[in-house]
Amino acid sequence: MLAAQLQIKTAEKEEQANQNSIEEQEEIDAQEVVSKESQTIESQEVEQKETIEEEFTQEEETEEEIAEAEDSTELEETVEEDELQEEAEEEVVAAEEYEEEEEQFETDEDLEEEQEEENTSAKEVVKPEPKREEKPKMKAETKKTTAVKAKETEKKSAAKATAKSAPVKETKPAEKKVKEVAQANTEKKAVAEAPVKKKGRFEYRKTDKGNYVYKLYAANHKVIATNGGTYSSLSALKSGINSVIKNAKIAPIEDQTLINIEEQKCPKWIIFQDARGEFRFRLLAANGEVVCTPNDGYLSKEACKTGMRSIANTAAHADIVKAED
């Protein structure tokens, strides 16, 4: 009898030990599950943050490229203006040199004429007596020649004055026109060579039921938002998209995760938590209709707000295109 009691107690102890071992194992398994879920949540949050940081990094790089292109264009314009200025100065110098050469040439001509007159006078003095009767005629011709030369000298002087003033009047408009043409060509070249900034896009399609829906793609081709529902017509869809473009940046935020909710007027953003505890948002148009929702939930409220800012920035410059079949 005593032996039977000992066996029963021994069996009870073994059963208790087994029960304790099972409970310990279950507790360890539960801790592992919790740990894995926590790691999964942290991993998802890190991926979302990396995606958002990547989008902002791309936007900053694009802005830097545009700034560099503008600086390069300004430098090229400055160099071209300097070259045009140098060419204009060279033209002025060439005109002055030409005038000096003309003046020297005219001076040489005057000296030659004076020398010829002196030689003519000397010859008249040396001529024999029988030819003295012709002197009055030669004197008259000399006076006439002198008068003609005086008139020619006056004409040359007037021509000089015109030549001196003409380059200034003609060069300035020509120089200005050359600068304008060069600047226009530079601007066209800058526009053609400037890097094209990457844009997001609203991509819409018609469903099998005849309704219209859209997705908003970021510059990196990732879907960041969708329409709040379906639209019965293409014009209604485009009206919803225009509401997103117009209101995304200026609409106030109504945070419904707070205890004391401060209600805002439409158009407005609404932040809330779904059944899984993830943060989501909706953009309501002026008529209260939902025009924009996120593609996925967010693990934190700050990440949710960052997603809202990303949608506002992308929508402002996004194209509206039809999805390819």
Lay out the secondary structure.
Elements: H1 2-126, H2 135-193, E1 201-206, E2 212-217, E3 223-226, H3 234-247, E4 253-255, E5 268-273, E6 279-284, E7 290-294, H4 301-317, E8 319-322
Parallel strand pairs: 1-8, 4-5
Antiparallel strand pairs: 1-2, 2-3, 3-7, 5-6, 6-7
Helix pairs in contact: 1-2, 1-4, 3-4
Give a description of the structure.
By secondary structure, this protein is an alpha+beta fold. It has two domains: 197 residues, no CATH class; 122 residues, PH-domain like, CATH 2.30.29.80. The chain contains four helices and eight strands; from the N terminus they run ααβββαββββαβ. An eight-stranded mixed β-sheet has the order 4-5-6-7-3-2-1-8. A hairpin with a 5-residue loop joins β5 and β6. α3 crosses α4. The longest helix has 125 residues. It is elongated and about 170 Å long.
